[in-house]
Fold each of these.
Amino acid sequence: MELTLSINPENTNAMAFLEFIKNLDFITIQEVKKTLTATPNKTQDSLHTETEVVEEDENGIPLRDKDFILELSRKTNKAIAEKWDSYFDLK
């Protein structure tokens, strides 16, 4: 069964309840990150929030972007190594 709860972070009882349920082995918690976006044909005053569940790996990298980030990291490391080699005349 899937259930969505909204917790008010300013309420101490709500935060205590959240800490309690985090310790239960049969509960999994997914935090929802909110992004602030503007609608195209409206003014800056009409900003609204959209909720999006972002699944992350154990290092905090979003799963949908993980391959892109790792490939970018490999390319950057390779470019740095080539510049390092040419600077110190290692090749």
Amino acid sequence: MAGLNVTEIPSGSRGRRGVAAIFPGLRYGPDRPLLAMAIATLKHRGFHVLLASHDYTSDAFSQLSDEEKLAQIHEDGHVFQRDHLQRFPGEPWMLVGKSLGTVSICGMDPAALPEHSAIAWLTPSLLAPGLTDAIARFPQPAFSLIGSEDPSVELARSAQHRGLASLTYVEVQGADHGWGHAGGDAATAHIEAEAQSTFDAWLNTQAGYPPINN
């Protein structure tokens, strides 16, 4: 039951800038818009992508207590970091978590991340116990994207999260936790485009990874 499986997607550009580790949500996979956008963007910008997959929908995992589930997800993130740091020594990491994937990242050691690493918290699951405090431990440049209709939005708006010195906070009006919009297809396309443009802007500036000219 424990552990994360990994699929590798090589960089789509000449020269490698670092490693992007992608942690999906419970039922929000890499084919869904936010993660597909992040993967394509980082691959194009020179990152070797490690796509984590989990079995947190299994019967065995569902029988654990909430505390045991949280501890297991944290432990899986910790083991992932330990194992893959050894494979890519010294290379910057770009950590991308969607929802439950943000809990995996919080199991990592911020001090062990290489220089010039950065983090994208996509609809962070701030309702998970201790997650807001855990995110605050990371001094790396960070991008926090959440919708105004997300259950965690009030916690995301708090000074404890939104006020972090290293964090770029983006709240998109009308977006829900699954990055849909009650206004229909056109409105959903608009919030998807807003996610792309704000992510691009953060990569170009705060994260320091503008596009590579091939």
